[in-house]
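Re: folding output
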Amino acid sequence: MTQNNKTVVALFTYGGGMRGLIPAYIMSKIEERTGYRMAEMVDIFAGPSTGAILNAAITRRHPNNPKKLLYKARHLVRFYERDGHKIFPADHFREFRGILHDFNNRTLKISQLKSIFKHGHYDPQNLGESLKALYGDAKLGDSYSSLIVPAYNIDSEQLQVTEEIDEDDNTPARTQNNFMDKGGHAVWLKNIRTEDRLNTAHNNIPDVSLYDAVMASTAAPTYFPCHHFSAYFDTLNKTKHYSAIDGGIFDNPCISYLGAIRRHIPKDHNLVMILLGTGHTNQSVTKDDWNRYGALGIVDPVNELPLINIFFHASESALMETFEEEMGGHIYLFNKSMIENEDVPGAPSKQIDDASPENLQNLKDFAQDIIDENAAEFDKVCDLLVQNYLRRKTTEEAEHEASTSKAKGCLFSFLRKDKDKKKKKKDAA
């Protein structure tokens, strides 16, 4: 695909706890190949949970020089290697505590047991300390590129019917999914940046810290408690309060495109989406197993949480075909199954909380396998990203960079095409 000034590049990073090391590693290899930071080449970053951790860090500005970025992708690889065991300390009794907590809630109601067994959660303070060290006091609105962080608000306090202006006839139109009811709702905390040539008519940047936004998006059910935080919306002159859990319970590339990204893409622009996975873990369940599990068995970790697994994958499987058709082939997916060879020595763990040194190495090997198995697509993406970086630069500026950049091959390829196009136009005239 030949890039032009009417192309917008979005990157969606999947959730998956420690398996976030996979997209972090792939991004580090893209940066090595191109010589540029991801946030210099990508217009929009989206994705839940561990993907939100990566995206928020990758787009964080340097506190001493806001025109520069603080982190390279390799720093995020190191983040998982350094902080993984702090966030997910080895704990062979976590599931047992969770079972006892459930038993306590249903029968005993003894507050002392509640304290002893800690609800079966990991300590959120460990995750919080790691994220505070990663983001400091940075806010969502400070991001270098456009950033979308999803979370699911389980508290209905803030739900209300609102009105927006219909773009077609300039009349008020009620939103379709913000009804006053007693249920929770999906939330996208967004900073859509005007310099990315995007439509900001629907943008309402909340005053919220990266720490709070990402803590909410990473509050995976059964692993961490919900995260309560507040966000101030200047255009509404209102502070909203959220009790949020992992955005991964509803968000995937299809949902993110339809609900959070598409409205910001000008109608005369093309959207290209790069999807960085954390390993396919969707498993089939036989009818005999399903019937044998019963009401409690379908949410039992011993059976690998079949109902929760279905919830996490159902909407994407329902929408992917239509999503691909609408995108017109402008999708680049880097992912592979973790199920096929899970019993082979050196295979990474499907568990999102396995931070053992052996698994960290296996995850990096798995990420390298994804790159190797998609070498042609990887080259295309690197070329596409360099072209996107150069979209506002003159040919002279690009030629100067090409003489010194690690991305020399990509740059000269792009410049050669650009010069040939100009020559043809001149000859035709």
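--- second protein (sequence, then structure) ---
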Amino acid sequence: MKIKSLFAVIATLVVGLFLASCSSNSTSTTTTVSKMPTIEGFTYSGEVPETPQRVVSLASFNTGYLAQLDLNLVGVTSYDKKNPVLVDKVKNAKEVASTDLEAITALQPDLIVVGSTEENIDKLKEIAPVISVEYGKRDYLQLVTDFGQIFNKEKQAQAWLDSWNKKTQETAKELKAVTGEDATFAVMGLFQKEIYVFGNNWGRGGEVIYQALGYKAPQKIQDEVFKTGYLSISQEVVDQYAADYILVAAEDQETGASLYESDVWKSIPAVQQNHVLKVDANAFYFNDPLTLEYELTTIRDAILKMK
């Protein structure tokens, strides 16, 4: 009996060690490392997971791309939290700042995505693998493919691009039947008492209006704004940067009140013809897939209402 008992104990120990070994091996292989493709403007630190489970996004211009690919965002910026486009996508994420290392660590991220100008990047590297992205280095649509390559979601990325191209072509045809093929657009942003004119690649709806829908800007805007992306102007000369249609992005209704009451604004033909699209700047800052979809719908609805 004693010998049988001894064999039973040994057998139990062997089975236990075998199961423990299997469990250990399973844990070590659950995280597949991304191929981390070489992409201009992208820098990797550490072993970036191909399918990250807990992502902290500390650069708002990246957040919409990550959300579009269905990555689990556990930490985002304060701006992301107030962005109407992202409100549902980040409702379970915690608002964090890049300087609050303790809060970020508590979220137990397996990936942190930052902008290339992030000052705390060396400290963030100690918490989790980091992807640093230089803003404006890559075309806004190419970034969809770029993030798809990193996270092995090329098919999902391409499906969105195909859908976007089809949708914008159809919308352009629909809207130009209302505005006319040769209608021009100006994109402006109001910030407190400042007025900005934006080009075709600096967010605020410029990518949708000028690139996706194919509208043109007045020559003055093309010459003075498109190269730099944006231009600060005074209220006195705002009429010089007007067009057949004007999109104005402001964070609230009070911003721009003095401009709207000015004689120079009221003298603009687009204003007199009610060809002004007033939009929420909080939702129009960037050019990620979620923002683009929102902008396209907003612009389409506004122009059709003018009809």
